[in-house]
Design goal:
Number of domains: 3
Strand content: 5-15%
Strand order of the largest sheet: 1-4-5-8
Structural class: alpha+beta
Distance between the termini: 23 Å
Largest sheet: 4 strands, mixed
Order of helices and strands: HHHHHEEEEEEEEHHHHHH
Radius of gyration: 22 Å
Shape: globular
Low-confidence stretches: none
Mean pLDDT: 88
CATH class of the largest domain: Mainly Alpha
Number of helices: 11
Number of strands: 8
Length: 390
């Protein structure tokens, strides 16, 4: 397979790194901290990317992109995630909400939703998981019942990232019952300002904004808010999950932090035990493996042939990499402290950034094998795909 990414990719990568260096605060560790300035910086950076046609680079020009290749969009994903996602929550709209609306939305829905996403002006949240419907998503109970010329939605969603700041929700609800639980589900595009929606934050070590409960109490939606066909939402969701699971280039951040370790530690790298350095090298190898699996799925997406098993194989590799690299980096970070009597040999600011970045990486990695579908479900999907192919 040829994964050179094309002639424009290297210059695009350099451009993105220059923009991050010039416009993102030094030692930025994400938009969703206790400091509101971090979210403001991310929103400003989104607008900057949008002005340059880089926020949704691979989108068609008519929808606010610049018609770049899917490989150039992959470069954007890699550089953004490697630098702690200075786009904030925009990846959700860019990676899968927008493309799904392009494929399944009406002309009115495309005109209403795609331009604001491409300009970096709107944040979306995902109304999928429920208290008794996480990995088994099709068991959800949130229901939409007919009411005149529209629908009334009632139920509860949980683990809804960015719900406190989102303007729109990509909501999956049950509209009828069928022989299989995957039947009778419908996707609605719901404004979070609609009467009857209540958001309750869930405190966690991931910080504010990430985890929330969302309650729907007879929230009125119309036929114009239905994405795709009524009762056929499961086919839309299957496509969404394939895009979502490859849309975050987790391996890029792992690789950046692993590669930074020797230069951050300087002479102290020699103090790191041989066994730990061997594990560090092994993690770098795993980074390359996850990257190649991601590229394979991107290539299949380009051809329109991506299947759940393809995305599952990548997801398994990258989430286990996330956790394995976090453990190795946490042990290495112990050596990123100025040794007694040798403080002058140590760049304390860089070392402090490294320790904080590793801690942040470790905290997020703990949920990696659960978020966006548990690793057990990914293994089931992969096993089914392999058995079907045998």
């Amino acid at each position: 397979m040829d994964f050179t990414m094309g002639g424009e990719a290297p210059e695009l990568r350099r451009e993105l790194r220059r923009l991050v260096q010039d416009h993102v605060p030094e030692h930025f560790l994400g938009a969703f901290t206790d400091d509101p300035a971090d979210l403001e910086a991310a929103q400003a950076f989104c607008r900057l990317l949008a002005e340059r046609g880089l926020l949704c680079a691979a989108w068609p020009e008519e929808f606010g992109g610049r018609g770049a290749t899917i490989w150039e969009q992959t470069v954007v994903r890699e550089e953004m995630w490697a630098h702690h996602e200075p786009r904030g929550a925009q990846y959700m709209g860019v990676n899968w909400v927008g493309p799904t609306i392009m494929r399944h939305g009406t002309a009115r829905q495309r005109d209403e939703h795609l331009p604001p996403i491409a300009r970096g002006e709107v944040i979306w949240c995902q109304g999928f998981s429920e208290p008794e419907a996480g990995s088994d998503l099709a068991s959800l109970r949130t229901a939409a019942r007919r009411d005149g010329d529209g629908w009334l939605v009632s139920g509860q969603k949980i683990w809804t990232s960015y719900a406190t700041m989102a303007q729109w929700c990509f909501l999956l609800a049950r509209t009828s019952t069928g022989e299989r639980k995957q039947q009778g589900l419908t996707v609605f595009l719901v404004p979070m300002s609609a009467p009857g929606i209540e958001v309750r934050p869930i405190r966690s070590m991931l910080g504010p904004h990430h985890l929330n409960e969302v309650f729907f109490d007879d929230v009125r939606v119309t036929e114009a808010d239905v994405l795709g066909e009524v009762d056929d939402g499961w086919s839309v969701v299957q496509e969404v999950l394939s895009y979502e699971r490859v849309g975050i280039a987790r391996y890029a951040r792992c690789e950046r932090l692993l590669q930074a370790a020797p230069s951050v530690l300087g002479d102290r790298w020699d103090d790191v035990p041989v066994e730990l350095r061997a594990r560090w090298a092994r993690m770098l190898t795993h980074c390359r493996r996850a990257r190649l699996l991601a590229y394979r799925v991107v290539s299949l997406q380009e051809d329109g042939t991506v299947r759940p098993g393809d995305a599952a194989a990548y997801r398994i590799a990258v989430t286990t990499l996330d956790q394995g690299s976090a453990e190795v980096l946490t042990e290495i970070a112990v050596y990123a402290t100025p040794p007694d009597g040798r403080a002058e040999e140590f760049d304390n600011a860089t070392a402090l950034w490294f320790r904080r970045a590793v801690e942040d990486h470790w905290r997020y990695s703990q949920a990696a094998t659960v978020a966006s579908g548990s690793i057990e479900m990914q293994r089931i999907l992969l096993a089914r795909a392999l058995l079907a192919a045998s």
